[in-house]
Specification:
The chain is of the alpha+beta class. The protein folds into 3 domains: 115 residues, Potassium Channel Kv1.1, Chain A (2-Layer Sandwich), CATH 3.30.710.10; 88 residues, Serine Threonine Protein Phosphatase 5, Tetratricopeptide repeat; 320 residues, Neuraminidase, CATH 2.120.10.80. 28% of the residues lie in helices and 24% in strands. It has 16 helices and 30 strands. The strands form 8 sheets. A 4-stranded antiparallel sheet has the order 6-5-4-30, with no helix packed on it. Strands 7-8-9-10 form a 4-stranded antiparallel sheet, with no helix packed on it. Strand 28 and strand 29 form a beta hairpin. Helix 5 packs across helix 6, helix 7 runs parallel beside helix 9 and helix 8 packs antiparallel against helix 9. The chain is globular, with a radius of gyration of 31 Å.
């Protein structure tokens, strides 16, 4: 036997023994403190007493080390009165001293930082800073920044500033922020920040409201703030409205002249103002899809309206063929549906869901839905996402709450034999669904409505409301789209007819309409499967082509990726740059959101 070889096998790892010893020592010290064994000092905070060992306090804190070494009165006393933190904060500080970690919450972290700063515990301050950086939101970023400045936590201050820049569009709409009370210098530092991710019209409206809040003292400062607004980034119609209705603008010669120059020339002569890197721009989103020969389950493209170009965006984490994709509060919610490689056979897969946040340019997982909603519909109502129906769960309906990241099952649909739906919310309370039998490509079989307050469905509308379009060769799209008007809901397939539903009486009428056709040289009618409306406009992209859309058995041919926008104001179509990744069946995977320009440059 080779003795050196045996010795090597039996030898222990000194590093592992060292770590084991450290762990055992920490556990013993904590156990002794919990039981009061060998404790030689009592810390008193808000009438709460905490037993501790002087040696541990002094080893972890330069403050206690100086206290117990020097000629302080506490040297000979068993009790030390402390006012630098709360009782809960002191408990967390002691936990960190004894075990190297602490249970932090948004309720106690401020007190822990205050105490850690007083006790000169840099490691604990950094531990708290990392916690707050992970929990930064639009609602707390200003408070966190002030805390960072107060306690000289530069890394946390930088993180808070980044959140402020990224979330400014949300912050301006948050009544809890109370930015209206900020000083002129604070507001000036905000509006002059070139990295803000915000729309310029939102920023202009804010500085107008800020000035009016204390007009006597603030009116003289308005021009200085106005000079930081990138006027040429504001829609001309909105800019003209500001110029004609806001006294602060049209009664000041400097402001009025700047607006007129931009309206007449389209540019701002103040060349010193560079466009904001994070300015929010309108982008039409196209997700996933298939062209039958291949699938594009993770493709994610955006059409930048103001620049007439397509960009490839960060890929989602789930397959999007086909999926319900819905916009809510400028975020995209994608609800998984079918296996892209077996979708022709309609084989379901496990449900999945992700959310795209354009302000940070990331997809994030959210709670999985209860049901599979392939060919179903999704709609936002009262800041909640509702998913309903589908081939595999035709009667299902569930609601997603983004505040709690939970799904809740709601009342089932009335007509379970319907599998395809178009849904729209009304008055932020009701959901109207327009249903289609899967065996009838053109007909609408009924209209039901759901009350989100009472969780009840009402009986379908009379059969006379059936949308019979078999003989209407003017139809250009499928599925139909719904548009909410002040007193009615209109459902159209961009053809000769439309359904009009009164939101007051719920009476249904069948009326003629007019949409000019989108045709190629051979006279084929475009059948874009991706359509969404914004301010009455319609964006249509990719899809398939057919000379007749009234039967599901017609020969459908892939489109060339052509993109068009129907301008509601002048009733005309405009052709845009083709989609670089044409998809034949993108389904309901299109929406419009606002993305910071720095992410699409």
């Amino acid at each position: 036997m080779a003795w050196p070889e045996l010795q090597g096998k039996l030898a222990s790892d000194p590093e592992k023994e060292k770590i084991s010893h450290h762990i055992q020592l920490v556990e013993q010290l904590k156990s002794q403190r919990d039981s009061g064994q060998f404790c030689d000092v009592h810390l008193v905070v808000d009438d709460h007493e905490y037993d501790a060992h002087r040696c541990v306090l002094a080893a972890c804190s330069a403050y206690f080390d100086s206290m117990f070494r020097g000629g302080f009165v506490e040297v000979g006393s068993k009790y030390v009165q402390l006012q630098c933190t709360s009782a809960n904060g002191m408990q967390c500080i002691l936990d960190f001293m004894y075990v190297g970690t602490a249970h932090l919450t948004m309720d106690n972290v401020y007190d822990v930082i205050k105490g850690a700063d007083h006790f000169l515990m840099t490691d604990l301050k950094n531990f708290c800073g990392n916690f707050l950086e992970k929990h930064l939101t639009a609602s707390n970023c200003f408070d966190v920044r002030e805390l960072a400045r107060l306690y000289d936590m530069k890394k946390m201050e930088d993180a808070a500033n980044s959140t402020i820049e990224a979330r400014m569009s949300v912050i301006l709409k948050d009544p809890n922020q109370n930015l209206i009370q900020c000083s002129f210098q604070e507001i000036l530092s905000i509006v002059s920040n070139v990295n803000l991710q915000v729309r310029e019209d939102e920023l202009l409206e804010f500085i107008i409201n800020w000035t009016k809040h204390d007009l006597g003292d603030r009116q003289s400062e308005f021009v200085k703030l106005f000079n930081q607004i990138r006027l040429d980034s504001i829609d001309r119609e909105n800019l003209a409205l500001f110029n004609s209705t806001e006294e602060l603008v049209y009664q000041n010669n400097d402001c009025a002249n700047l607006v007129k120059e931009v309206l007449n020339c389209g540019t701002d002569s103040r060349g010193r103002l560079q466009p904001r890197l994070g300015r929010l721009v309108d982008v039409y989103i196209l997700c996933g899809g298939s062209n039958w020969s291949i699938t594009l389950p993770k493709s994610f493209y955006g059409y930048v309206v103001e620049e007439n170009r397509w960009v490839e965006l960060v890929s989602p984490r789930i397959d999007l063929w086909p999926t319900q994709v819905t916009e809510m509060d400028n975020k995209l919610y994608a609800i998984g549906s079918c296996d892209p490689f077996t979708a022709r056979g309609y084989n379901p897969i496990q449900t999945s869901a992700v959310c795209y946040d354009p302000l940070i340019n990331e997809w994030q997982p959210i709670a999985n839905p209860i049901y599979l909603h392939y060919t179903g519909a999704s709609v936002v109502c009262n800041k909640r996402l509702y998913c309903l129906g589908g081939k595999f769960s035709p009667s299902s309906m569930e609601m997603y709450d983004p505040n709690t990241d939970t799904w809740v099952e709601r009342a089932p649909l009335i007509n379970t034999y319907h599998k395809k739906y178009v849904a729209i919310d009304v008055n932020d309370r009701y959901i109207y669904i327009i249903e289609e039998r899967e065996t009838q490509f053109a007909n609408c079989q009924g209209i039901d409505f759901y009350d989100t307050h009472t969780d009840q469905w009402e009986t379908s509308f009379p059969s006379s409301a059936v949308w019979e379009l078999e003989d209407d060769d003017s139809c250009q799209i499928w599925p139909p789209i719904a548009q909410r008007l002040p007193e009615a809901v209109e459902i159209t397939r961009l053809g000769k007819y439309k359904i009009v539903i009164s939101t007051d009486s719920r009476e249904i009428s069948f009326a003629e309409t007019y949409y000019p056709s989108v045709q190629d040289g051979s006279g084929q009618v475009a059948c874009p499967a991706v359509v969404r409306t914004r301010k009455g406009d319609v964006f249509a992209c990719s899809g398939c082509r057919s000379s007749k859309l009234q039967s599901a058995s017609v020969d459908l041919r892939p489109n060339d990726g052509s993109s068009h926008v129907y301008h509601y104001a002048d009733r005309s179509w405009e052709k845009f740059t083709p989609n670089p990744s044409p998809t034949m069946i993108p389904g309901q995977l299109c929406a419009m959101i606002q993305i910071p320009h720095c992410f699409i440059a």
